[in-house]
Specification:
280 residues, alpha+beta, Aminoglycoside 3'-phosphotransferase, Chain: A, domain 2, 2 domains, 3-stranded antiparallel β-sheet, 8 helices, globular
């Protein structure tokens, strides 16, 4: 990300402290004690940490939004994912919501604690990430189970694909999605655990273009060519027309994020990947 101004840095510091207090308040509500260093989500909108209580070790997460935002599938995605079976994902045990004055809505979720280690502390991994063949096969099986699971939730629809791809690559780009499946919707490396496999952060899951999850993981790996090669090796959908269109959408989405200052190391690889997908 770009370096923030001193004013923005100070505002972020204060917001982090406020979110930490929200985490402590949520822990007290559930009869838990925060038992690890908090981890902040994208743009500080969420904070989570291990917590201990009578039932053992849990994961406690608080997400904060302006009052006009906390609605729709993304707000309840983690809890809604409890309807999914056969996947290595945390289960939501309890939920608590409250308002902070007239400006923010808070949602706290207590979840089961998964035993694996994060593949990366950031969305984009380092060059030293080594994963076993078993891990890759387990991930492929999990995403196949997910893809075949029916749901009425929508992660990405045709209108969103069309808008994002044409904004990035022009109005003549073919964006018709002909195959849909259930997807995680945000499968980057900070949302994956290893030893054993775990899949975190189910806010955005629902129906989306076939190959979206493999395409997302691949695009987040482009700065580490050997890792990107392994993603392609284990997810042959990327070599199909369905997978190509999913990659166009994900590439466009991440280029938009890069334009906002996120993961700048991906900007050049994403542009090169787009040229390849478009036959340039």
């Amino acid at each position: 990300m770009t370096t923030p101004s001193p004013e923005v840095a100070e505002a972020d510091r204060r917001f982090r402290l406020w979110m930490r207090r929200n985490l402590e308040d949520a822990a007290a509500h559930f009869g838990l004690a925060v038992a690890g260093e908090p981890v902040f989500g994208w743009r500080l909108r969420s904070v989570g940490a291990p917590a201990e209580g009578p039932g053992g070790r849990r994961w406690l997460r608080v997400v904060s939004e302006e009052l006009s935002w906390p609605k729709g599938h993304a707000w309840t995605g983690n809890a809604d994912a409890d309807a999914l079976h056969g996947l290595p994902r945390p289960r939501v045990i309890d939920v608590h919501e409250w308002d902070e004055g007239h400006w923010r809505r808070q949602r706290a979720e207590v979840m089961t604690f998964l035993p694996g280690m994060p593949c990366s502390v950031t969305d984009v991994p380092g060059s030293d990430l080594e994963l076993s063949g078993t891990w890759w096969r387990d991930l492929a099986r999990a995403l196949d189970v997910l893809a075949r699971t029916p749901t009425e939730r929508i992660s990405t629809d045709q209108a969103k694909v069309t808008r994002r791809v044409r904004a990035a690559f022009g109005d003549d780009t073919d964006v018709r999605v002909e195959r849909w499946e259930t997807v995680h919707g945000d499968l980057h490396w900070a949302n994956l655990l290893r030893s054993p496999l775990g899949i975190l952060d189910w806010e955005l899951w629902g129906r989306g273009p076939a190959g979206t999850d493999a395409a997302t993981l691949h695009c987040y790996s482009l700065a580490v060519p050997e890792l990107a090669r392994r993603v392609r090796e284990h997810f042959p959908v990327l070599e199909t027309e369905h997978g190509r269109r999913a990659q166009l959408y994900v590439t466009a989405r991440l280029l938009h994020r890069a334009g906002l200052g996120d993961h700048p190391q991906l900007a050049a690889p994403l542009r090169e990947h787009a040229r390849s997908l478009l036959g340039g």
